[in-house]
User: Which sequence fits this backbone?
């Protein structure tokens, strides 16, 4: 749905029209390669006049010097090249794409002052370009100001570097990740009238073409398994629930799998505990956890990750209806534990508890990580810049935090403790699905923990980061695709043989 974008790598490029982008370190000295575009030093003067100093991610378009074969010229600041990390190069890529505008041909001279940009970082620039270029315009029927319908305006980007050959290799896996992020964003942006549980499950089945084994469990099969917590949420909707179970077997045969589980509430009205009308449309994104897991599975399979990975999606719609579940209802989860449903809007945990139990029961994974747009309270606590991390395992937490720092998809650990656990004890059943006014994100985490036993587990509350998060160099869409890059990095750094 995004602008169709091709990325090439080249050792040298003669400029022949289109946009030329130069990278400029802090201090405002253009690199050697700029000589081709700026034989007379005109650009340098233009930069001085505009007080462009090469600050990280700053950008400036300039008048094309007479006799240049470029149609447009822009410069992007990169700060101090010695201090740049992967995350920075990614954002530089985003800033580069920010200058593309209507150009259909782009040549980026990828050098950092007097030194070459390393191949992996050139791949990061390319990834940043792809992430920034994403847009969701499937339902815009009017032509854009390019005079072209959004679907046809392609752009060809050439990254010029001495490291072109190895950059091209590194880019293959970056492309897989970019596609995974775009898939997750598409799913979150897609409205619920188009994307119900059945349609979402079909998207999971589509991964079979990448070699992922996919099973889709229907209502009947879930009933047999005793997943009455998940089924209770679904019973108010005319659209039946699904549980998607994906397996990517890229690791050694005997290697225990790692597992990712996503909350996939395709729309959350709150059910009988109906949400207020204002902003309810955002609840089409309440499947952001499932979208991230599906995007991750896509990325891992497309880049042929050497790991055994399970992905499970709990797919339901939470609606009010004559048949919907009521506050006070008591359901029996697959684990056998009973739950008093105090608030039908605390539905995500009801979906996840059966998915988590199913996962550990069937696969006995090395660890389970679930992702969920679980609580509004996590937005109150952390805003839109960190996802909440809840876990029973310090090593897993450290690895997730590290992956967060590497990718820029940051997490922040929150506590779990018996004092909080007590808050979800119920008068009538083993537990209730809400813990009262305070510490709402933590009591939600305590609830999930009751379904993982001793399995190393982490819960990522992505309510603040999956959608409506700040617009950045690498994301201009409502849906961010949060989690795909974070977990791809986690797998890459620790779980591939
Ligand atoms: N899907 C919501 C959480 C949410 C809120 C996600 C805002 C994204 C943005 C979740 O199902 C929910 O409604 N949680 C309730 C829990 C409460 C009833 C204990 C909430 O956060 O208010
Ligand atoms: Zn809810
Ligand atoms: Zn919800």
Assistant:
């Amino acid at each position: 749905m995004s602008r169709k974008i091709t990325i090439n790598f080249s050792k040298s490029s003669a400029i022949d029209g289109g946009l030329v982008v130069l990278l400029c370190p802090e201090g405002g000295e253009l690199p050697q390669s700029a000589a081709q575009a700026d034989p007379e030093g005109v650009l340098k003067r233009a930069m001085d006049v505009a007080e462009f100093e090469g600050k990280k991610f700053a950008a400036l378009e300039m008048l094309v010097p007479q006799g240049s074969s470029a149609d447009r010229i822009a410069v992007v600041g990169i700060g101090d090249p010695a201090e740049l990390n992967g995350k920075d190069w990614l954002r530089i890529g985003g800033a580069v794409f920010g200058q593309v505008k209507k150009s259909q041909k782009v040549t980026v001279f990828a050098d950092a002052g007097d030194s070459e940009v390393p191949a992996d970082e050139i791949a990061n620039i390319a990834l940043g370009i792809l992430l920034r270029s994403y847009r969701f315009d499937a339902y815009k029927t009017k032509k854009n100001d390019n005079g072209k319908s959004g679907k046809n305006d392609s752009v060809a980007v050439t990254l010029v570097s001495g490291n072109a050959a190895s950059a091209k290799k590194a880019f293959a896996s970056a492309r897989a990740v970019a596609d995974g992020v775009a898939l997750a964003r598409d799913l979150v942006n897609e409205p619920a009238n188009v994307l119900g549980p059945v349609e979402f499950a079909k998207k999971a089945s589509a991964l079979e073409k990448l070699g992922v084994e996919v099973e889709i469990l229907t209502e009947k099969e879930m009933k047999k398994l005793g997943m009455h917590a998940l089924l209770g949420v679904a019973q108010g909707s005319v659209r039946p629930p699904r549980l998607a179970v994906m397996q990517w077997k890229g690791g050694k045969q005997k290697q225990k799998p790692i597992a990712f589980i996503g909350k996939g509430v395709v729309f959350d009205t709150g059910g009988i505990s109906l949400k207020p009308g204002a902003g309810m449309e955002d609840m089409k994104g309440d499947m952001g956890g499932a979208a991230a897991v599906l995007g991750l599975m896509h990325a891992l399979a497309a880049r042929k990750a050497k790991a055994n990975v399970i992905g499970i999606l709990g797919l339901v719609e939470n609606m009010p209806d004559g048949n919907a579940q009521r506050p006070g209802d008591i359901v029996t989860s697959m684990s056998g534990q009973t739950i008093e449903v105090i608030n039908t809007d605390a539905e995500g945990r009801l979906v996840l508890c059966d998915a988590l139990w199913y996962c550990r029961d069937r696969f006995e994974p090395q660890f389970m990580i679930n992702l969920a747009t679980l609580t509004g309270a996590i937005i109150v606590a952390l805003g839109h810049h960190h996802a909440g991390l809840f876990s029973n395992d310090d090593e897993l937490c450290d690895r997730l935090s590290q992956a967060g720092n590497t990718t820029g998809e940051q997490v922040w650990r929150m506590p779990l403790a018996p004092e909080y656990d007590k808050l979800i004890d119920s008068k009538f059943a083993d537990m209730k699905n809400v813990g009262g006014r305070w510490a709402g994100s933590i009591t939600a985490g305590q609830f999930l923990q009751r379904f993982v036993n001793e399995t190393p587990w982490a819960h990522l509350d992505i309510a603040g980061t999956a959608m409506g998060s700040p617009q950045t160099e690498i994301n201009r869409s409502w849906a961010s695709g949060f989690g795909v890059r974070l977990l791809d990095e986690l797998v890459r750094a620790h779980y591939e043989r």
About this structure: The pocket of zinc ion (ligand 2) is lined by residues 268, 270, 345, 347 (CB under 6 Å). The longest helix spans residues 164-189. The longest strand covers residues 258-268. Residues 247 and 310 are 5 Å apart (CA to CA).
